[in-house]
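Async update (no meeting this week)

Hi team, since we skipped the sync, here's where things stand on the single-chain job. The sequence we agreed to prioritize is pasted below, unchanged from the tracker. I ran it this morning and attached the output directly underneath so nobody has to dig for it. Comments welcome in thread, and please keep replies under the output.
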Amino acid sequence: MPKLNAVLERVTDRIRERSRKSREAYLAQMRAAASDGPHRAHVSCGNLAHAAAACSYEDKRRIAKGKGPNIAIVTAYNDMLSAHQPLGAYPDIIKKTLSELDATAQVAGGVPAMCDGVTQGRPGMDLSLFSRDVIALATAVSLSHDVFDGAIMLGVCDKIVPGLFIGAARFGHLPVVFLPAGPMGSGIANEEKARVRQLHAEGKASREELFAAESASYHSPGTCTFYGTANSNQMLMEVMGLHVPGSAFVNPQTPLRQALVVETARRAAATTALASDYTPFCDVIDERAIVNAIVGLNATGGSTNHTIHLIAMARAAGIIVDWTDFSDLSAATPLLARIYPNGAADVNQFHEAGGLAFVIRELIEVGLLHEDVKTVAGKGLSHYAATPALDGDRLVWNPARSASSDEKILTPVSRPAEPTGGLVTLGGNIGRAVIKVSAVKPERRIIEAPAIIFKSQQELVDRFKAGDLNRDFVAVVPFQGPKANGMPELHRLTPPLSVLQEKGYKVALVTDGRMSGASGKVPAAIHLTPEALDGGVIAKIRDGDVIRLDALSGTLELKVDAAELDRRAPTAPDLADQRWGTGRELFAAMRRGVGGAEVGAMTFSLEERHE
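Output:
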């Protein structure tokens, strides 16, 4: 194998050393859970009878005998969200497949799946980030019955996969395979969708025209086709070896997708402690797998949400990473993909050009991925440098394309779209933040301008419509962090700021809120920590203060004397309206207990036994 890249090796060693105590404690817990063999053997007859009461006679016999594996299905199915609607058919396919192997499967539980695309700009968005931890808790409840030998996780979108992952990690003695539904077919071109959105922001397109464009984009079962958090999730599961190879971007309701569902069931059974290829989750996910995930995120221009989620996911497995790790790996990783919003193509076009198989092969060849990891496929990561196909009724894997079919979408390492991955950590007297610059033009990566403070997204939109923002400025939107209101995504800011930028004004955004996978061409310092409600300096910024955002040097500076800042009292807005209604009052304990963005914005501690 090629020699590992020096930065990759150094960051991996740094994470391993930093995580030594928590990782050892995690693995000790997982080994103890696995030590007694399949737990069904220790469950009382009454308990086991309860677990199998609704099963068929044959499945009751198999579960009671305990010689064949019983696989838990944890599902995010609902039929309102396009990405999850296809999952409804999967349990029956899984059960049928396993019955042919003298094994069983049961739907162990369901987890909620909300869509940020539906809740954008609405009160429900304030529940979005916390839904990840609700999903983690629901996954734990689903697996708590102690009658399963492995698990299949059915989920796709933004908070769902991270939540399923966190919950699965706490049952890391079990083998776990993730199974998505795949993206919907291509609809309206992303550039056309963006054009209509911008026209609507300028008042030049009606609501009916905007709805028609959006409906032509989001039009059928499957994941949205832009490269946001949902599709970034699938890339991560692939590069961490938690999918059957090639599962990420095969369209739903196709024979190939059905074959991948069947193969996922088979691999779930083959990797349990009752089989010869026992591959528990805790052995698949180690420091190398997490580093591979960060590299994959940078190489494909993935969602900034994972500068929060991956940290939480890693901590669930006893691994501690921070934004410096992301930034250092980004500097060493070439950007190989141009997928909207970092380009014009959608994920279907990316997949056709060579897709993840091509990316993984290219990165392995230059030592930018750890190849020698465990995967649910039973082989190293090189097995993921292949594309699934059907040879008659038989599922086969063909080697990744030797060359991209379209270098405007997918490039080799020798001719990258950009030399670095585009995720940069910013630091300075305002705090620490992240910025995604892969879609930001080089001349816009340094902005120095006066601040304008906005209490909300709506205030910025209203002032834009009133013509009050035709100037150079840095939009500062504080009190959007997890403690304040759950850290909603602030996508409604993108169209007006984009319009102002196109008019020639120098504009940027600084916020303790999120922008996610749709972070685009406007420079945005996001996830600022400490947040305003946690003593962050962002709460002391005033209109007219000059801010310098420099994505090249990685600095974010407020040009105000330190003594003057010390004298200033932070603003103290009334957040009551953002904490009541649409169920937000039920999440008060989560707001009080949540950690900062750079430690994963987690609402529970996973390190109490390590302290």
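Quick observations from my side:
The chain is about 35% helix and 15% strand.
The chain has a mean pLDDT of 93.
Reply here if anything looks off.
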